[in-house]
Amino acid sequence: MRLEDIDNLKSDYIVCECYEVSFGDIVEAIENGCDTVDSLMHETHAGYGCERCHSKLNDSDSDREVHLDEILEYTKLK
Ligand code: FES
Hints:
Layout lengths: L13 E3 L4 E2 H9 L5 H8 L23 H10 L1
């Protein structure tokens, strides 16, 4: 997914399947001040399982639309 397309994701899209954390949950955590993958993990519990949702770098063969680091990168660009 291109970064500029992230806004088109539905808020209930599950970014982290291990802990069923949605895109909306991640955005809310960022709006509440999370600005690193670690702080998102702490706030939402996303990423504490298989860790594949952290970055495309460790999730290259999945069809996950977006990863925690990409959401952070995009929100910093806005
Ligand atoms: S998909 Fe997020 S930890 Fe497994």
